[in-house]
Amino acid sequence: MSTAGEANFPTMIIPRGTEIRVNTHGQLSIKTPGNLVIQNSGVYSEIESTNGSIRIEENVTVEAVSIRAGQACFIQGTLTAWKVHAKKITLEDRARAFIMLQESEHLELAKSARLVGNFANEKELFFMMGKFSPQLKELPGAVDMSGGSQPREISENVRPTTLKVPAVTNPGTPTEEQHLLAAQVALEKEIMRADLSGPESEALREVLFGLRERNVQRVGLTWRDAFAEVRNPSENVRNAYDHLEKYFGKVS
Description:
Elements: E1 19-22, E2 28-32, E3 36-38, E4 42-49, E5 54-56, E6 61-69, E7 72-75, E8 78-85, E9 88-91, E10 96-103, E11 106-109, E12 114-119, H1 122-131, H2 133-137, H3 176-190, H4 198-212, H5 216-228, H6 235-251
Parallel strand pairs: 2-4, 3-5, 4-6, 5-7, 6-8, 7-9, 8-10, 9-11, 10-12
Antiparallel strand pairs: 1-2
């Protein structure tokens, strides 16, 4: 495929059956029937190998909403994902993975690897986040959530946050944070539907991004109009609507 005098650049082959899409937020979605090796850092929406395996190579940082592999997911670099589904998930030496939901039959970690998250399903996540939602609200403002191990320096003019022991709430009554979390989980599942139209998907994603960021003002301004775009609401949409209705009914 090369002629004399041409530079020897790598050849990229897109096999038959591969689907590549870009959403309005500039995130790639890749679905391929065979093995997929990621050698370039990036932010993705969905990554799927229908029948093969996915490998994230060393010194590569990947962020994705969903990763699905028919066989295995091998991580040598760094992965941040909402959900990873594979028969086997392997973290090799010095690999880092921040996975909220992992669905796998086998999980292998090298001694120097690090795994954060690792909930088995949405129910576990909902329970834990809801149970400790008061502690999440009390996180000091000086905590660096960008992944660094060192806290940011606190200015002399900033008073340290006082740790409060929250009152015990009735476990049968969802808290405000639980309503937001439940709505987010429902919408995370909803946007995976293949039969959503473009306007429906974009409207729900707008609400979902606000929920992920806990930008309550943004969600409050958009969620009713966004849900009105959905012609045939599924159970997930109805659940998300109910939780947002209860949340904004409480805070209004």
